[in-house]
Design a protein that fits this description.
heterodimer, A: alpha/beta, Rossmann fold, nine-stranded mixed beta sheet, about 25% helix, globular, B: alpha/beta, 2 domains, seven-stranded parallel beta sheet, five-stranded parallel beta sheet, 8 helices, binds flavin-adenine dinucleotide, binds adenosine monophosphate
Chain lengths: ~250, ~300
């Protein structure tokens, strides 16, 4: 079985972003970029499935600017076999990303596609579910555990434990399927220096959205982007007694 | 045209998140029809009919709808979509799972986690863990929207909508339910609690978390939350995580104990009315958003707080 993994290049999670003063967006010049953290978890999961003999190839795909090649090289350095960059300077919405990845899946015929639960820039939490819908496949979202039976037969299933609002839900999904990854699924490995060197020579194909017949023009109009209302630091209290007193009398919340 | 609102319920009880989503629906404007889908959904449907602002309740009962599996639920919603120009759900684990599937099947983009209705086609939504707020306008044929319920008050009761039974559609049969491991508790739910007390990595173990946080929670009638670090380390269950990628809450009082205040955590609680931080590091970023900060060792402060409140 082949596993396809989507990876998105996003502003690093440690960066406190700044909103542009003219309301036109978020300042992205000279900001540290990284692989979306959920996508690191996806790559790790695919590699573990391959190491367990459940998969024979891990292909990573990104939709984004030329620089997204760096993100794909990181995935290759972690251990992915091949990469596909669908190059575009547009900010591509989840629906269009899903359509492009569907196109990739039709060529690659993976048995499983692993997508992050959420991109930490747009916080949409849509792409995996949309991709699964477009392919007419099952979806196992917010996964904290993925088990694959014999892993080879096309009619086989995956057992997915999902993080839901009330706790955990376990479902069986028919393969091929889309799984989206949650934080507790695994702890991603770091790429070693020799593997980073090796990754430079691994195959990376370049495509365009047009190769898959997808129009990436935004359908949602962003009218403006603003700073959230700030919150000011309050006061420091000296003791628990003072705290409880303030909460009761001043704030009236106890 | 009308709005279809997917209800959140557990069979016998309608979630408060539905009443909050209804408030957003009312602001968008139009007749609101609430869809209650499940294996036994009648009780929840009757509760939905009592919410003021609901024009009609649709109940679909079928074993395939018992566990909120995305594929049959999405198929049901898509089968109804012709009569609606807006489809709404709370941004709960059910809404987030199923609505993007619906949107893709209808070939429209989704607007995720709106926090404000500016007009019937224009919404505010946070991006970058709430560090920026976008105003977006949609011209899609059908508006598919999830609602961040922490930003909307619950609609009141007083309605008496009609309840209509509708047929389920064929189950696509792509997934099957295996088991639920739901945490049961007598404490209030995180997303509707008036008071929340949360613990972080500083708690050090599941035993300490129980021993130190829970007695204060019980004394205050509070729900319990946690940081990602506390959940990852197994001190608290996953459904207690508050933050960018966990639950977003806005109680009257949020007490953060041994939590540093990473942006991903703040994203889930910074709209709380009153924030208290207890941390032994006076430089901890959580103090920058706290109305009341106490620089102290939580293992001493919390037992004292239990006695004092
Ligand atoms: C993709 C992604 C998503 C994330 N999503 C979330 C999310 O949804 N929610 C979330 O919370 N985090 C999230 N995080 C993690 C976040 O970045 C932080 O790592 C996390 O919030 C830290 O948890 P903490 O504050 O408990 O731990 P730490 O940052 O380690 O802080 C512990 C604090 O406890 C204090 N302390 C220690 N001992 C004591 C004591 N005895 N008494 C009092 N204080 C003490 C310390 O001074 C310190 O400030 C996410 C991260 C990523 C990358
Ligand atoms: N431009 C992109 N390229 C590759 N993968 C993407 C892209 N956008 C979104 N994804 C995938 O979809 C997941 C969820 O993103 P979102 O729906 O935007 O929150 C991410 O974790 C990625 O795995």
């Amino acid at each position: 079985m082949k596993i396809l993994v989507t990876v998105k290049r996003v502003v690093d999670y440690n960066v406190k972003i700044r909103v542009k003063a003219d309301g036109s967006g978020v300042e992205l010049a000279n900001v540290k970029m990284s692989m979306n953290p959920f996508d690191e978890i996806s790559v790790e999961e695919a590699l573990r499935l391959k190491e367990a003999g459940k998969a024979d190839e891990v292909v990573v795909v990104s939709v984004g600017p030329a620089k997204a090649e760096e993100t794909l090289r990181t995935a290759l350095a972690m251990g992915a076999d091949r990469a596909i960059l669908v190059e575009t300077e547009d900010q591509v919405e989840p629906l269009a990303v899903a359509k492009i990845v569907k196109g990739v899946a039709e060529v690659e015929q993976p048995g499983l596609i692993i997508v992050g639960k959420q991109a930490i820039d747009d916080d949409s939490n849509q792409t995996g579910q949309m991709l699964s819908a477009l392919l007419g496949w099952a979806q196992g979202t917010f996964a904290s555990k993925v088990e694959i039976g014999d892993g080879k037969a096309p009619e086989s299933t995956a057992r997915v434990t999902r993080e839901v609002d009330g706790g955990l839900q376990t479902i069986d999904i028919k393969l091929p399927a889309v799984v989206t990854t949650d934080l507790r699924l695994n702890e991603p490995r770091y790429a070693s220096l020799p593997n980073i060197m090796k990754a430079k020579k691994k195959p990376l194909d370049k495509k365009s959205p047009a190769d898959f017949g997808v129009d990436t023009t935004a359908r949602l109009k962003v009218l403006k982007t603003e700073e959230p209302e700030g919150r000011k630091a309050g006061i420091k209290v000296k003791s628990v007694a003072e705290l409880v007193e303030k909460l009761k009398v001043e704030a009236g919340v106890l | 045209m009308a709005i279809l609102l997917l209800a959140d319920h557990d069979g016998s009880h309608l979630s408060d998140q539905t009443a909050k989503t209804l408030t957003a629906a009312t602001k968008i404007g139009g007749d609101v029809h609430v869809l209650v889908a499940g294996a036994g959904a009648k009780a929840a449907a009757d509760q939905a009919a009592k919410l003021s602002g609901v024009a009609k309740v649709l109940v679909a009962e079928d074993t395939s709808l018992a566990n909120n599996l995305a594929e049959p639920l999405a198929a049901l919603i898509v089968s109804l979509a012709g009569s609606y120009d807006t489809i709404l759900a709370a941004a709960t684990s059910v809404g987030k799972n199923v609505l993007p599937r619906v949107a893709a099947l209808l070939d429209v983009v989704q607007v995720s986690e709106i926090t404000e209705v500016v007009s019937s086609d224009t919404f505010k939504r946070p991006i970058y863990a709430g560090n920026a707020i976008q105003t977006v306008q949609t011209s899609e044929a059908k508006k598919v929207i999830t609602v961040r319920t922490a930003s909307f008050a619950s609609a009141s009761e007083g309605g008496s909508a009609s309840v209509e039974t509708i047929a389920a559609v064929a189950n696509p049969g792509l997934s099957t339910f295996v088991a639920d491991a739901l945490s049961s508790s007598d404490r209030p739910e995180l997303t509707s609690a008036k008071i929340i007390i949360s613990g972080g990595r500083a708690l050090g173990s599941a035993e300490k978390f129980k021993e130190v946080i829970l007695p204060v929670a019980d004394k205050l009638g509070a729900a319990v939350g946690a940081s990602r670090a506390a959940v990852d380390a197994g001190y608290a269950p996953n459904d207690w995580q508050v933050g960018q990628t966990g639950k977003v809450v806005a109680p009257d009082l949020y007490i953060a104990c041994g939590i540093s205040g990473a942006i991903q955590h703040l994203a889930g609680m910074k709209d709380s009315k009153v924030i208290v931080a207890i941390n032994k590091d006076e430089e901890a970023p959580i103090f920058q958003v706290a109305d009341y900060g106490l620089v102290a060792d939580l293992f001493e402060a919390l037992p004292e707080m239990e006695r004092a409140s």
